[in-house]
């Protein structure tokens, strides 16, 4: 596995505003011999892991439709000796590997892809299209790195299964569906992840996500890392009719257009500037013909927040704006907009001690300058922590692994860009050299938390 040291300068361009881990606090990190063995196993597995990644990338699946991906996860884990449970919350998979006394360590990889058309010119790019729940056809692609997440987990699983003499405890690996709509974790817990399927309460819980940082960099930051979120549908009702006679209608398209603009004032004029708040309308769906005013228009909005008070302010604002517009255009009280709450998640907050422990260990393995320990809270969101269900006291840490080619990252920096691309962008790209790097991070993190063999 290649060294990341030659990319230190690039990394520091990103890390400069933040602090690196202090060199205090002795930790029982994996020994050099154990890390070397893991490194050797992962290096020998690169060709298989790369082929697996390309296969999953070429065959993306939307939320709760990850049947093929879930089958890959189940098959691979069964072959490694894991006790595998499938169909949890739809397509969720859990693999449990017991190896004597020691901690129970849970790890999650999400499996779903995005409704985005990939623009990367790759021989393994996605060309998949799928029919969505509303009957519409949509392109599908892994533009958030979940294909890498699955590959990293399965690579780590193979390394741990071959190193049972170097650790003790229980490994719980979760293949989670539907992270993108923020509904998959809750679905697995509601389906009886712990009660019905017998998953043991973890002593530690970790997850890893891609980021367009240079390959070889890792973020292990304590405290608030990702925002809370809500997915909200607003159905504007109107009176349809002929496009040539708008005076005989109550046009929901106009209502929806006004609502999109007025929603933005909720954040800019009602939420204090010191609070993080984002309100985005990602979709407007109305009508089908040029000359027909439809009877309804659907807005799909997304909220990001860290404060519950801010969340409530945005939700109240959406209701007030939507109903105000409907009344202005003459809609009766029994035809007010219908607001539907869909997937939601609380802010993701990393455990301070666990994050420091993992960061220190990874710093020792990857290099002193490789791990960033403080990162500004993002407005992106996750539901990974909701997998803990009732066990909110379990230490949890979410790591971020760079997957951008260092040269591409350097080029973006010279052009004044913060990153070469963003998640959910048609050009999101995982550097193939990040496949073994991410696998190594996952494996070392697990070995750090699992017990030592007796």
TrEMBL record:
<feature type="domain" description="Peptidase M20 dimerisation">
    <location>
        <begin position="232"/>
        <end position="323"/>
    </location>
</feature>
<feature type="signal peptide">
    <location>
        <begin position="1"/>
        <end position="28"/>
    </location>
</feature>
<dbReference type="GO" id="GO:0016787">
    <property type="term" value="F:hydrolase activity"/>
</dbReference>
<keyword id="KW-0479">Metal-binding</keyword>
<dbReference type="InterPro" id="IPR011650">
    <property type="entry name" value="Peptidase_M20_dimer"/>
</dbReference>
<feature type="binding site">
    <location>
        <position position="209"/>
    </location>
    <ligand>
        <name>Mn(2+)</name>
    </ligand>
</feature>
<keyword id="KW-0732">Signal</keyword>
<feature type="binding site">
    <location>
        <position position="424"/>
    </location>
    <ligand>
        <name>Mn(2+)</name>
    </ligand>
</feature>
<dbReference type="Pfam" id="PF07687">
    <property type="entry name" value="M20_dimer"/>
</dbReference>
<dbReference type="Pfam" id="PF01546">
    <property type="entry name" value="Peptidase_M20"/>
</dbReference>
<dbReference type="InterPro" id="IPR002933">
    <property type="entry name" value="Peptidase_M20"/>
</dbReference>
<feature type="binding site">
    <location>
        <position position="144"/>
    </location>
    <ligand>
        <name>Mn(2+)</name>
    </ligand>
</feature>
<dbReference type="InterPro" id="IPR036264">
    <property type="entry name" value="Bact_exopeptidase_dim_dom"/>
</dbReference>
<keyword id="KW-0464">Manganese</keyword>
<feature type="binding site">
    <location>
        <position position="180"/>
    </location>
    <ligand>
        <name>Mn(2+)</name>
    </ligand>
</feature>
<keyword id="KW-0378">Hydrolase</keyword>
<protein>
    <submittedName>
        <fullName>Amidohydrolase</fullName>
    </submittedName>
</protein>
<dbReference type="InterPro" id="IPR017439">
    <property type="entry name" value="Amidohydrolase"/>
</dbReference>
<dbReference type="GO" id="GO:0046872">
    <property type="term" value="F:metal ion binding"/>
</dbReference>
<feature type="binding site">
    <location>
        <position position="146"/>
    </location>
    <ligand>
        <name>Mn(2+)</name>
    </ligand>
</feature>
